[in-house]
């Protein structure tokens, strides 16, 4: 039985085109908005010379925009965004989404005081929950990235976008709560208006511009990446992105009080050092208690986003860890997993049976000016869940968790233990909690957390079997 859901609005959606357009794209001289250097000509007429230069610049700018649009169209076709496809959901199995369980056979009568939308714990609840996750994708025609001529991240920024979505989910939990839902309607009361303001504020923090008012923009992440030798156009792994997110939050804390009760910790070599967490989050000894800004966490304890980069195999993921990954997605504290297939980054938010449910950043959209009043929100929310077989997951990934209070963190340590060790006793846990501080532990090589294998694909076209999307349908 099919559950009807409006298709993802693809405004100005490019129509499928054949490979001749790809050849045209490859033949254009300037890539991703790159413009040719101006050449000086000998001329006695300065005004004529100026007009010639203006005409050359306009022509080069036009070529750059055309190249960007063709790249966008090719990417959208390549990853299946130009055709309607279906994701099949079994009516006999539960669907898990970031700690929430939904089942077709579970139907809850909506309460009379529900002011917007009707949501039960059945499949309608899953749809509302999935659509409410913040979706950050490739964008085109944004301001030039620092130190480059790139005006799009199409073709190389998928892991950065996946990391942005992971952080965005942590911020949604921090500010709006895990139970928050987005409905594409105007707010009708004070509570909904407040939620709309907070929702837009979170999206503004990820706006595609080099402003300090967007501390988690791709411009900021690329700038931070230069310290490690990365530049615009380079590919990133999940471990690298987790450290960029930590640095971005640390910098944002210095300029915006919104973040002073939030911190990010990145596990080292699959080990979470408890005293490091306490030193980072416990502010009762280092600072006087300030109860005026304690809306989102305890005044003496910072809320924690915990990022754990792991590598679950050599070339392929060790299958014994599959059940561990899905178990982690059933925890209320989990904010998702970034990883994907080899050369193809995705943001995983749930699963059904042996299929992972994810948000795909490989849809190239026009940039949105998030500083305009009431800017459109539809392009930041996806109506098209996609699924991928768990066995195809790349072994390199990063798992995210959110703990609001001290009690939440210690309860999380207890509850997560049963998810970390595979059923095969001889296998190692996915990650461990260690007493003490990392700096007090003698350094030694456990195993490498190399993350270079998860990258955006450049030329290989995915088969139709890899792409499941667009409509909700029950078998």
TrEMBL record:
Annotated SUPFAM superfamilies: Cysteine proteinases
Main location class: cytoplasm
Residue ranges occupied by any Peptidase C54 catalytic domain in the UniProt entry: 124-414
GO BP terms: aggrephagy; autophagosome assembly; mitophagy; piecemeal microautophagy of the nucleus; protein processing; protein transport
Region (Disordered): 32-64
Keyword Amino-acid biosynthesis in record: no
Keywords: Autophagy, Cytoplasm, Hydrolase, Protease, Protein transport, Thiol protease, Transport
GO CC aspect terms: cytoplasm
E.C. numbers: 3.4.22.-
Catalysed reaction equations from the record: [protein]-C-terminal L-amino acid-glycyl-phosphatidylethanolamide + H2O = [protein]-C-terminal L-amino acid-glycine + a 1,2-diacyl-sn-glycero-3-phosphoethanolamine
Compartments it resides in: Cytoplasm
Skewed-composition ranges (Basic and acidic residues): 39-52
GO MF, one example: cysteine-type endopeptidase activity
Pfam families: Peptidase_C54
Function of the molecule: Cysteine protease that plays a key role in autophagy by mediating both proteolytic activation and delipidation of ATG8 family proteins.
Family to which this protein belongs: Belongs to the peptidase C54 family.
Protein name: Cysteine protease
């Amino acid at each position: 039985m099919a559950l009807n859901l409006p298709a993802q609005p693809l405004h100005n959606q490019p129509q499928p085109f054949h490979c001749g357009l790809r050849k045209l794209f490859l033949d254009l001289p300037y890539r991703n908005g790159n413009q040719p250097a101006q050449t000086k000509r000998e001329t006695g007429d300065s005004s004529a010379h100026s007009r010639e230069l203006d005409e050359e610049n306009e022509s080069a700018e036009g070529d750059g925009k055309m190249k960007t649009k063709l790249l966008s169209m090719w990417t959208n076709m390549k990853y299946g965004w130009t055709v309607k496809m279906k994701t099949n959901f079994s009516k006999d199995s539960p669907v898990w989404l970031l700690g929430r369980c939904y089942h077709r056979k579970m139907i809850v009568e909506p309460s009379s005081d529900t002011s917007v939308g009707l949501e039960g714990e059945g499949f309608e609840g899953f749809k509302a929950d999935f659509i409410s996750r913040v979706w950050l994708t490739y964008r085109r025609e944004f301001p030039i990235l620092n130190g480059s001529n790139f005006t799009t991240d199409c073709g190389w920024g998928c892991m950065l976008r996946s990391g942005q979505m992971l952080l965005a989910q942590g911020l949604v939990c921090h500010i709006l709560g895990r139970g928050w839902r987005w409905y594409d309607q105007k707010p009708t009361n004070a509570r909904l208006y407040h939620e709309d303001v907070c929702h837009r504020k979170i999206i503004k923090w990820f706006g595609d511009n080099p402003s300090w008012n967007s501390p988690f923009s791709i411009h900021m992440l690329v700038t931070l990446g230069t310290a490690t030798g990365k530049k615009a156009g380079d590919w990133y792994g999940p471990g690298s992105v987790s450290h960029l997110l930590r640095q971005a939050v640390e910098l944002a804390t210095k300029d915006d009080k919104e973040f002073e009760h939030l911190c990010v910790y990145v596990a080292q070599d699959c080990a979470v050092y408890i005293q490091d967490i306490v030193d980072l989050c416990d502010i009762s000894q280092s600072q006087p208690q300030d109860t005026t800004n304690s809306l989102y966490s305890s005044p003496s304890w910072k809320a924690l986003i915990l990022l754990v980069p792991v590598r679950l195999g050599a070339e392929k993921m060790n299958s014994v860890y599959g059940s561990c990954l899905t178990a982690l997605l059933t925890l209320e504290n989990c904010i998702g997993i970034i990883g994907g297939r080899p050369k193809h980054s995705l943001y995983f938010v749930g699963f059904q049976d042996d299929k992972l449910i994810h948000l795909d950043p490989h849809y190239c959209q026009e940039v949105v000016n998030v500083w305009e009043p009431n800017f459109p929100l539809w392009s930041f929310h996806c109506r098209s869940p996609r699924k991928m077989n768990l066995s195809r997951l790349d072994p390199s990934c990063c798992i995210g968790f959110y703990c609001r209070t001290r009690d939440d963190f210690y309860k999380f340590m207890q509850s997560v233990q049963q998810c970390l060790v595979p059923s095969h006793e001889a296998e190692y846990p996915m990650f461990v909690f260690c007493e003490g501080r990392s700096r007090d532990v003698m350094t030694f090589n456990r195993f490498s957390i190399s993350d270079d294998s998860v990258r955006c694909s450049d030329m290989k076209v995915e088969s139709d079997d890899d792409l499941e999307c667009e409509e909700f349908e029950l078998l």
